[in-house]
Amino acid sequence: MPETFAKDSVGLVTPQTLHFDEPLMLACGRELESYELVIETYGTLNPEKSNGVLICHALSGNHHAAGYHRVEDRKPGWWDSYIGPGKPIDTNRFFVVSLNNLGGCHGSTGPRSINPQTGQPWGKDFPKLRVRDWVHSQARLADRLGIEQWAAVIGGSLGGMQAMRWALEYPDRLRHCVVIASAMNLTTQNIAFNETARQAIMSDPKFHDGDYTLADTYPKDGLAVARMIGHITYLSGDGMGQKFGREIRSGSFQRGQDEPVEFQVESYLRYQGDVFSESFDANTYILMTRALDYFDLAREYDDDPIQAFSHASCRFLVVSFTTDWRFAPERSREIVEALIGADKAVSYAEVESEYGHDAFLLPIDRYYRLFNEYMQGVSTHQ
Amino acid sequence: MSQINNAKTLSSTAIATGANPSGLRIDLDVIQAWIQPRSRILDLGCGDGTLLENLRDHKQVTGYGLEIDPEQITTCIGKGLNVIDQNLDRGLSNFADHSFDSVIMTQALQTMHAPHKVLEEMLRVGKECIVTFPNFGHWKARWHLCVSGRMPVSDLLPYQWYDTPNIHFCTFRDFEFLCRELNIDILQRQVVAERPFSRLLKDLRPNLFGETAIYHLRKQR
């Protein structure tokens, strides 16, 4: 094997599939009789089983958070910048667990899986999931791995919502909760964007009301548009401007020329949409965006976030990014204020960045260092 | 735009806090003596968290530090302290009335845009508050202004007037007048002077020889 990986990379990783036979009662009232979760782990579980770190993924994420599946892979996992030997989520110290959530399309049971009762893919009949369903399934995963208490549960965006829900549902099962670029619920504008994305998918003639697999087709174009819409909202206006400006990829504005003009940003967005729609499932996209829309941390606590967080017993780190307008710093500050109101241990940092919501995935010096300092503390008190 | 403002204030607070490290040490001993064990405190402009760390380790306090300097915030996080990225000039409206036993501000009042409002906010949020600031009435400052006719620049106040984080200087007397105006009770006052000469005379004429004052305040009921 050639030594092709950086020293701070976890290198080659192999996903595992875990089967769960105990039925899972879902928030929607339906039950999943059995299910599979695909996971990746990095690092080693210590004998006390106290160094487990759970990574919760966002809307389009999956279990492949770090390292490479094949030597020739061009890109590592989605959070490779922060997971690895010597990195903030240090695999020399932590046993890192990353999974593909239920309803996903990367191997865990979801709309693409076979419904044992019909022998056909679930498709649109797959139960609607809420964030708490993921958290409960993740708790089963912890049981399976022998992890009674996570050193930390960490997530960005939709992943941060899972981390917060963990702190309320299983207060004794985590010591730290890291919530990055997240919110206690979505803004109206956010729901509106999600609905527009869903409509793009559903209005694709190949969607077939969600039963596209049965019709042996796929709403690729609709999903691509949905992703394009999402992608615009994950970047900041300035960031996009700096990256693409009004650069033209082809064509010309010269008078007397009728050649169509294509801006760089158009080609970029189309590329992003294409790549995404080839690897993602339309029903999963609908399911995940609905889970985002429905999430409301304090709903069952009289809509009082302070009351909600009074149930938590872990320490919190909350991070936001200045140009993130999809999960704006104000939304993170609401989390922090509720935590302070509930007299919980919390630190908060608002990181200067031009990368919008996407910043939470990117290597940013200040973010990296404060995250690193926090995680050092997590590992020394395990 | 607000970010630019933030960045400005942020670096200035850092400088102000870092300017007088030895002074901070003496402040610290006094403050530590005034803080009740296991109380809930809020430290405004907590810098690198030295005070909070001491109070946590020696007085078992809980609470939070507010800071806007990125480096200082990271340092606090490294010490396992609760630190919140917050610009004090935006107020404390996110904190409930009397939700802390003590609200502390060391060597930062003079960097605030509206010190009187900050003071009132501190006493709304805290049952008590502790404030420390440098004395502009110190004889060296008076001497400098009197003799050279220029704004004092010394090892105590090392900034030029046009480039200083210290935008609202006051003397001990000024501060006590303000307290009277705002119906604030001064529970305790400790005047600190580190120079031998000043140390000898600070109790006699605090407003002339005191370098730093530490005030323990409460709102009149």
UniProtKB/TrEMBL annotation, chain A:
Q: Which GO terms describe its molecular function?
A: homoserine O-acetyltransferase activity; homoserine O-succinyltransferase activity
Q: What catalytic activity does the UniProt entry give for this protein? A: L-homoserine + succinyl-CoA = O-succinyl-L-homoserine + CoA
Could you state one GO biological process linked to this protein? methionine biosynthetic process
Q: Please give the GO cellular component terms listed in this UniProt entry.
A: cytoplasm
Q: In which pathway does it act?
A: Amino-acid biosynthesis; L-methionine biosynthesis via de novo pathway; O-succinyl-L-homoserine from L-homoserine: step 1/1
Please, which domain of life does this record's source organism belong to? Answer: Bacteria
Query: What residues does the AB hydrolase-1 domain cover?
Result: 53-361
Cited Pfam families: Abhydrolase_1 (PF00561)
Q: Where does substrate bind?
A: 227, 358
| Residues under site feature: Important for acyl-CoA specificity | 326
Quaternary structure (record): Homodimer.
Protein known as = Homoserine O-succinyltransferase
Give the gene name: metXS
